[in-house]
Amino acid sequence: MHTKRNPYIDRAKHCIGLDRKKPYIRHGKKFYRPYRNYFATGRDYEVWEVMESAGHAKRGEQNQHGGYTFHLTRAGLDWLGKQLGIHIYDEGEDT
């Protein structure tokens, strides 16, 4: 059975590199430390506007493609982690 993809989760995962690297498991729980936290959009950034209005993302500077660079907030990292069953660390957070 094929499940429908969620564009919010897909973009958030890509933003922090979770689509390329897997979380690690310690004491039976999943953890992930992002190696990046940014997503550069083109002119179509409606999904990111929704995430921004929910407090899950912040908009940065406009880019050369007519879009913006967004990053996930702590609330966005927590939301994504809850969706996936993973604790996602922030840059300044200790392991």
Main features:
single chain, 95 residues, alpha+beta, Arc Repressor Mutant, subunit A, 3-stranded mixed β-sheet, 3-stranded antiparallel β-sheet, 3 helices
Characterization of the model:
The chain has 95 residues and is α+β, with helices and mostly antiparallel strands. It has one domain: Orthogonal Bundle (Arc Repressor Mutant, subunit A). The chain is built from three helices and six strands, in the order αβββαββαβ. The strands form two sheets. It has a three-stranded mixed β-sheet with strand order 1-2-6. It is globular.
List the helices and strands and how they pair.
Blueprint: H1 7-15, E1 24-26, E2 29-32, E3 39-40, H2 46-53, E4 57-62, E5 68-72, H3 74-84, E6 86-88
Parallel strand pairs: 2-6
Antiparallel strand pairs: 1-2, 3-5, 4-5
